[in-house]
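Quarterly update, task 2.4: uridine-diphosphate-N-acetylglucosamine-bound model.
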Amino acid sequence: MKILQIVGARPQFIKYFPVSQAIEIYRNNSHADIHNILIHTGQHYDYFMSKVFFDIFGIKEPEYHLGVGSGNHGEQIGQIIQRVEEVLIKEKPDVVLLYGDTNSTLGGAIAASKLHIPIAHIESGLRSYNKKMPEEINRILTDHVSSILFCPSEIAVRNLKKEGFNEIINAGKLVEKEYIPTHSLTNGFNSIVLNVGDVMYDAILHAVKISEDKSDILRKLNIVSEEYYLLTMHRAENTDNKERFKELIRFVGEVSKKITVIFPMHPRTKKIYNEVREKFPPNVIIIEPIGYFDILYLLKKSSLLMTDSGGMQKEAYWLKIPCITLRDETEWVETIQSGWNVLHHNYKGEHHTHSEERLLYGDGKAAERILKIICKLW
Ligand code: UD1
């Protein structure tokens, strides 16, 4: 069978890694004839936003690099649709695999669905219920044209149920590793919803061990374990509004008066930071974006994370680092319920940590489940 995957933005390279590994393993174990084609839309193009991930994970070069680059939403998504469509017509894959909620996800979803190619959506069912976030629009639209909706958690399944999806496997609980679908795509079905766990958990379990051996970022930055906070901030809703951005600069300054803060700055944040008068205090050290192993290691050795990233909220939870989320809501509500995460407007000046034994996002075998299910549906 022919699987075509589409990636384009930083977090998607991370999510692609465990899936590409699972394909190799499945191919070797079952001798199945799986043809795996990768499209990189080019949404992210800086070395540290893109290629560094292919290098560290040893992922093969994409078969197609579409070179779309930055732009307004219409321009960027429009170009993705157009260029992905050309590849889909040529390659005629059996299924298109999409990740998360970026403009690359939505562009791929529109191109594939218009050509009647079934879509499997990884990280399906997430909702912040804030339609001002571009990602929220991307998620909703992608889910509603997908055939196989791979959710990372029970809450994500519940969100889809509210939107009318009714073919829900195992009542939304994590599907068994041995689960074999009785549906068949060749007979046609509308859509099925499965909780397979989170592929980012698969990725982190693998990467955290490597990062301990490979990363020398603490030495490079001349900082000591647990004597600093880590900060990341790049979301459009924080960086496109100067007042909001300045407010967050003040919040960070207030929370971290007596401690060093390391801030790998995303290119879009750098742009606006250079335009505003408000500056971080000198204990906030701004560095270039860094690779996955370095950021994981920095997070693991920090004493607190402040972030507006979706992925990093979960990584903090998995690594048991308290997190303050620099947003007004989050789609990863389980991290808040478990006590490891707090929204910045609810932060009361103390780091609330809580030990939660139950695994919220699966068991680190999401990619294996995804592969098995896709292959059995044909
Ligand atoms: C995108 C995703 C967001 C994800 C983030 C991860 C959408 C709508 N958003 O946001 O969900 O969390 O990726 O990083 O798809 N830029 C560069 N070099 C690059 C990439 C971007 O300089 O390699 C700058 C450009 O000025 C660009 C801006 O960053 O205009 C925004 O990039 P874009 O890809 O549009 O969205 P992100 O903010 O990265």
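Highlight for this quarter: The pocket of uridine-diphosphate-N-acetylglucosamine is lined by residues 9-11, 43-46, 49, 70, 101-103, 134-135, 234, 266-268, 271 (CB under 6 Å).
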